[in-house]
Design brief:
There is one protein chain. With 217 residues, this protein is an alpha+beta fold. It has three helices and six strands, in the order ααββββββα. A four-stranded antiparallel beta sheet has the order 3-4-5-6. It has a two-stranded antiparallel sheet with strand order 1-2. The protein is elongated and about 85 Å long. The protein starts with 7 loop residues before the first helix and ends in an 11-residue tail after the last helix.
């Protein structure tokens, strides 16, 4: 009996069916991958928020300032390694990253201070590289005096800076490192002063009805 073999037409039909199935599955796989990255980002920010709360418990209920130096503009040398990220790491509330982009500027290159979305695309903006998290204030906040802690943002997905501006005072753009980055399917993740984490579409963060960036709203 002569062994059966596929004809070229049959092989092309099988390949076409496989390609159709792959095209149907890819959106679901991409969606699942995006959700996994978002969940990982949420986990990072939960860990950072826990570190901030531990810092507050050791420093009279005050959050770590953006920078410990009295003046951190320009080339003031006292600002080096005194950013909020440095403070949390130096206080042992967060593990030290295996890689620093710039320890002097508090810019981590690995670990919980870097969003897992960094591997999905090149997010380089000016001197900044990768994706990270930023805080939205300059001085320490006294938690006991904040009545709307559950609606006030403390940290969030930024485009490359360890701080962010309020969109009400400085319009966010896709080239501004201090603006939120809609890297999670068109939205961003942020942590609030009561410790909880939220994901919102980018348009929702910009909406005036969300008073989450402090009294300047």
């Amino acid at each position: 009996m002569k062994p059966y073999s596929f004809t070229m037409i049959e092989l092309m039909i099988v390949l076409a069916i496989l390609m159709i199935l792959l095209c149907l599955l890819l959106p679901a796989l991409n969606k699942a991958n995006a959700r996994a990255i978002q969940n990982s980002c949420t986990g990072n920010q939960k860990q950072i928020m826990q570190a901030v709360m531990l810092y507050c418990s050791d420093f009279d209920d005050r959050t770590p300032p953006l920078n410990l130096a009295e003046s951190f503009s320009g080339s003031n040398p006292s600002r080096s390694r005194n950013w909020w990220s440095n403070l949390l790491i130096r206080s042992k509330f967060l593990p030290e990253p295996k890689v620093w982009i710039s320890e002097i500027e508090g810019k981590s290159g690995s670990g919980v201070l870097v969003c897992p979305a960094r591997g999905t695309e090149n997010r380089t903006i000016g001197i900044y590289a990768s994706v990270t998290y930023g805080v939205g204030y300059q001085v320490s906040l006294l938690l006991s005096r904040i009545q709307d802690a559950s609606s006030r943002v403390l940290i969030g997905d930024t485009r490359g800076s360890i701080s962010f501006y309020s969109p009400k005072t400085t319009p966010w753009t896709d080239t501004l490192p201090q603006s939120f980055d809609p890297r999670h399917t068109g939205g961003s993740v942020a942590g609030f002063l009561d410790g909880h984490i939220e994901y919102r579409p980018y348009s929702a963060w910009l909406a005036a009805k969300h008073r989450c960036f402090g009294p300047q709203d």
